[in-house]
Write a structure and sequence with these properties.
Strand content of chain A: under 5%
CATH architecture of the largest domain in chain B: Sandwich
Largest sheet of chain B: 5 strands, mixed
CATH architecture of chain A: Up-down Bundle
Number of domains of chain B: 2
Oligomer: heterodimer
Largest interface: A-B, 106 and 109 residues
CATH superfamily of the largest domain in chain B: Cupredoxins -  blue copper proteins
Number of strands of chain A: 0
Radius of gyration of chain A: 24 Å
Shape of chain A: globular
Order of helices and strands of chain A: HHHHHHHHHHHHHHHHH
Structural class of chain A: mainly alpha
Number of strands of chain B: 14
Strand content of chain B: 15-25%
CATH class of the largest domain in chain B: Mainly Beta
Shape of chain B: elongated
Number of domains of chain A: 1
CATH topology of chain A: Cytochrome C Oxidase, Chain A
CATH class of chain A: Mainly Alpha
Number of helices of chain A: 17
Radius of gyration of chain B: 27 Å
CATH superfamily of chain A: Cytochrome c oxidase-like, subunit I domain
Distance between the termini of chain B: 38 Å
Helix content of chain A: 55-70%
Chain lengths: 591, 416
């Protein structure tokens, strides 16, 4: 079944995964373009390449895009494609809900970017601190595009989280105990719990802001007794778990990639799993380390210093276990492994600079300076994004049935490493020497020009490096060599089925007896006897449905029409949503 | 796309020093001496050679580029001149070394692994190793020890930087507004803008308050930043909350700073200058402020009036009668009462205008009065040709012509 209609109505987790990936990959270049404009503006002191207002929009949209439209959905793309295959399921638990998540995400991303057409792109930074976001100080539509866009995207994330928790808990193949599950699926589970718990917190913060702006409420209005610090607490109570939402999928990916190319099982599997869970939990107790300069008092600051220091321990444990996995292995270095090793090397830098500003008095200097910008780019680009790149190279043969070019992949890796480090390492120095972040320009006397020029050159190298990936993806998809079922000699279930997988994934669900079913000759034979067999009749799969798309449209309209200021306009969206849900409910799941 | 700044930048020269090269030079020279003295004091008397060595190497490493290029970083976060800044500094050096050690170990082990365990041709799959309890415990405890070693001095530092004020401290009320700073010293009755003079050796307490959105007061060499929050209205009997910064300056010099919390369009153009000076110089500055500038008001007797610079006299006329400057600005000892904008008392004596953005010259003053937006987009002062709306009130274009602006600049410059 092909054609546009089949994609619009698909409920197949694999197709939805591909759509998630392509959308987030597109936004990656949008966010990257914004970053390059920022870097050109900062190349020289007292530059006026773009105006201060444009600059504000660029860094706000760069942050918002990279977090909500790139890193999160690209991880979800992998959840979608890989998790059901890894745990031995035919689809996710709620295939139509899955489609709804995607369409809401797509429309939300388009909505927030449509603000550029109105010249009103969000301009109060990705953290949108109150009370700058109040009508009095930001009277335009900018903040409204941002808060409505994020609210829409939040719906998508919560639905996705619910779906993957249910899938991973309930749909594992026989014998796939939780402690036999591949690490990527484990981290998908932890991340999904974080999604369904953390996103509602920011939803609350956003809805309070919406009430302030649309209905004259006073949650953050100082003159009426509201408190802007409330926003910071709510935002970071979401924001810190969010950091782990971004990084844990990448940790999961490299925890599968490193054993594969070391040809050894993951060292300390249960410890790595528990460390991931622990990070998820402690991640809830560290939010005020983003607020050491706010003036919460020494008791609160000390608590958050201690909790933040504690979270360094499970993170360190993970790094040591990855190193121990490679120790004594037979290491191969195709592109997925290069990026995985790159993550370990580079993320360590970001983790350690994080320890520096976990020490609150040091943070008083480093907070909101370029030092922090360097830190979180080491974590989110060096840690999260490069982990996702590793995943792209790793699973591409499974998705397309084609092998990617290794030499192009190596070019991509090395230019990324050079560009990335050249962009972000000098930022440590710019910050130490007093460059605040979110700064449109800086005075020549501050002597920050050299550091900024290095970063700008690096950013362009980094930008160009991504073109290797685009070209490699396109070329390999068109005329790559055919990939066998298990091109990497990997251990987990997704490699036991043909590449690309049939739409029902597994003709018969395999029985699993260990963590590395494909590395044990006997078990492998057993598993492949069913996974590679031709079924007598194809398993019955959920039928395509158009209604998730309609409901998504309704959801987005009911939010977007709030901006018209006409009180009944959002009701149109709600009506469409209700109509869509009704039709959805009465459409049979199987034909 | 925004161009005016580029056009204007030809005229922009930013002063490095408020009190001329004298203080700046003294500041640099005493820097080295005092750094050494501080190190001596900090490291205790014996068994501290290693610590001393590590500190010095740390300083050298992190400031490698400083010495290499002879660059002076006016906003360096690792070159403090107060006791407050010293707390962050000593912690920074400690943590710096811990992190360097960990990084070196991780990278060294990793480099070894990547070379040593590369697959050899025809190599069999290695024996599977699933884990090792002893190792897991070891590398749980090792980072735990390190973070405890960092946490203990950190928490001490947290209490140190937020200690209660000293009783005899000089209190300065700092108000951040989009996009400038007001400084008020209640015990001396002094109010000034963007450029604060402080005495060396006397404890100072900054009381921070925002007039609009959240800002952050950051003069890196004085120590870390502290957010400048709007004061939240409290119920009767409740206590209003404001942030404080307490420190004692140890060196003279001109210290640069700027707002560190994104506060809107011109956030990056919201500079601060702190002039650290001797007690006598500080007293002189205060008494200058307290005595009305000679040219602020029209001379009382006619003989003086004839000797006065006619341009200054003309500017005074423009300031008080032909414009509405006085609605927002005040000048001590005159009838100008405004409190919305920066206090202009002795404005001619400041090193910069527009919150650190322009050197204080008559030409730059003219530019600023005529077209402030070209210097600072988002500024809340009307220009000659455009209005501005501030808190719901629209201030019309000033409609001043070139002659009026030139006179006005001369008048303001004359009050040194």
């Amino acid at each position: 079944m092909t054609g546009l209609w089949s994609w619009l109505t698909t409920v197949d987790h694999k197709r939805i995964g591909v759509m998630y990936f392509l959308t987030s990959f597109f936004f990656f270049f949008v966010g990257g373009l914004e970053a390059l404009l920022i870097r050109i503006q900062l190349m020289r002191p007292e530059n006026a390449f773009i105006s201060a207002e444009t600059y504000s929009q660029m860094f706000t949209m760069h942050g918002t895009t990279m977090v909500f439209l790139v890193a999160m959905p690209m991880a979800v793309a992998f959840f979608n494609y890989v998790v059901p295959l890894q745990i031995g399921a035919r689809d996710v638990a709620f295939p139509r809900l899955n489609a709804l998540s995607f369409w809401v995400f797509l429309f939300g991303g388009l909505f927030i970017n449509s603000s550029f057409l109105f010249g009103a792109a969000p301009n109060t930074s990705w953290v949108g601190y109150a009370n700058l976001t109040s009508l009095q100080f930001t009277p335009g539509r900018n903040v409204e595009f941002w808060l409505i866009g994020l609210s829409i995207l939040g719906i998508s994330s919560i639905l996705g989280g619910v779906n993957f928790i249910t899938t991973i808990i309930n749909l594992r193949a026989p014998g796939m105990k939780l402690l036999r599950m591949p690490l990527f699926s484990w981290m998908a589970l932890v991340t999904s719990f974080l999604l369904v718990t953390a996103i509602p917190v920011v939803a609350v913060a956003l809805i309070l802001l919406a009430f302030d702006r649309f209905f004259g409420a006073n949650f953050y209005e100082v003159t009426a007794g509201g408190d802007p610090i409330l926003w910071q607490h709510l935002f970071w109570l979401f924001g810190h778990p969010e950091v782990y939402i971004l990084i844990l999928p990448s940790f999961g990916i490299i925890s599968d990639v490193i054993p594969t190319f070391s040809r050894k099982p993951l060292f300390g599997y249960p410890v790595v799993v528990y460390a991931g869970i622990l990070i998820g939990f402690i991640g809830w107790g560290v939010w005020s380390h983003h607020m050491f300069t706010v003036g919460l008092g020494p008791i609160a600051d000390s608590f958050f210093v201690a909790s933040t220091m504690i979270i360094a321990i499970p993170t360190a444990i993970k790094i040591f276990n990855w190193l121990a996995t490679m120790w004594g292995g037979a290491l191969r270095f195709p592109p997925p492994m290069l990026f995985a090793v790159g993550v370990v090397a580079v993320f360590t830098v970001g983790g350690l600079s994080g320890i520096m500003h976990a020490s609150a008095p040091i943070d008083l200097q480093q907070h909101d300076s370029y030092f922090v910008v360097a830190h979180f780019h080491y974590v989110l680009v060096g840690g999260a994004l490069m982990g996702l790149f590793s995943g792209i190279y790793f699973w591409f043969p499974k998705v397309t049935g084609k092998l990617m070019s290794e030499s192009l992949g190596k070019w991509h890796f090395w230019t990324t490493m050079i560009g990335f480090n050249l962009t972000f390492f000098p930022m440590h120095f710019a910050g130490l020497f007093g460059m605040p972040r979110r700064t449109w320009t800086y005075q020549a006397e501050l002597n920050l020009e050299t550091w900024n020029q290095l970063s700008t050159v690096g950013a362009f190298i980094f930008g160009i490096s991504s073109l290797f990936l685009v070209w490699n993806l396109f070329r390999s998809w068109k005329k790559g060599e055919a990939a066998p079922a298990n091109p990497w000699d990997a251990a987990t279930l997704e490699w036991s089925i043909p590449s690309p997988p049939p739409h029902y994934n597994f003709p018969v669900l395999p029985k699993v007896r260990s963590r590395e079913p494909l590395w044990d000759e006997v078990e492998r034979a057993e598993v492949e006897a069913v996974t590679l067999s031709e079924p007598e009749h194809e398993p019955e799969m959920p039928s395509p449905s158009f209604w998730p798309l309609v409901v998504a449209l309704g959801v987005v309209l009911s939010w977007a029409l709030v901006m018209t200021g006409v009180w009944w306009a959002p009701l149109l969206g709600l009506a469409l949503t209700a109509f869509g849900i009704f039709s959805w409910a009465f459409q049979p799941a199987f034909r | 796309m925004f161009a005016p700044v580029a056009e204007a930048s030809g005229k922009r020269r930013i002063a490095r020093s408020a009190a001329g090269p004298r203080i700046a030079l003294r500041g640099v020279m005493s820097l080295r001496r005092l750094t050494q003295a501080r190190l001596n004091q900090a490291r205790g008397m014996k068994n501290a050679n290693l610590l001393r060595w590590m500190r010095q190497v740390g300083l050298l490493l992190t400031m490698a580029m400083v010495s290499a290029c002879g660059e002076e970083y006016l906003q360096s976060t690792i070159d403090p001149v107060t006791d407050y800044g010293e707390v962050s500094q000593s912690l920074y050096l400690q943590v710096f070394w811990w992190t360097m050690i960990v990084l070196a170990v991780v990278w060294a082990v990793m480099a070894y692994i990547l070379v040593r365990f590369r697959e050899k041709p025809g190599q069999e799959r290695p024996k599977p190793v699933h884990g090792h309890m002893g190792l897991e415990i070891a590398w749980t405890i090792a980072p735990a020890i390190i973070v405890v070693a960092i946490t203990i001095p950190t928490i001490k530092g947290v209490f140190k930087v937020q200690r209660p004020p000293e009783g005899d401290a000089l209190v300065v009320e700092v108000t951040g507004k989009r996009y400038w700073w007001s400084f008020h010293i209640p015990e001396l009755g002094v109010t000034t803008a963007n450029e604060l003079h402080l005495p060396v050796g006397r404890p100072v307490s900054l009381r921070l308050e925002s007039g609009d959105v959240i800002h952050s007061f950051w003069v890196p060499r004085l120590g870390g930043k502290r957010d400048v929050n709007p004061v939240v209205t409290v119920r009767e009997g409740g206590e209003e909350k404001r942030n404080w910064m307490h420190f004692t300056l140890r060196e003279e010099g001109v210290f640069w700073g700027q707002c560190a919390e994104f506060c809107g369009e011109a956030h990056s153009l919201m500079g601060i200058r702190v002039v650290g000076e001797s007690e006598e110089d500080f007293q002189a500055w205060v008494s200058d402020w307290q005595t009305t500038a000679p040219t602020a008001n029209a001379p009382e007797d006619a003989s003086e009036a004839t000797t006065e610079n006619p341009l200054v006299a003309r500017g005074r006329e423009v300031f008080f009668r032909e414009s509405y400057c006085v609605l927002c600005h005040s000048i001590q000892g005159t009838v100008a009462p405004g409190t919305i904008g920066p206090n202009l008392t002795r404005v001619g004596g400041r090193s910069t205008i527009a919150a650190g953005m322009l050197e204080n010259t008559p030409e730059n003053l003219e530019l600023w009065i005529r077209d402030p937006r070209s210097v600072k987009p988002g500024v809340q002062m009307p220009g000659a040709q455009y209005d501005v709306t501030y808190e719901g009130v629209t201030f019309p274009p000033t409609n001043l012509d070139d002659e009026q602006i030139r006179a006005l600049a001369a008048y303001l410059s004359s009050m040194r």
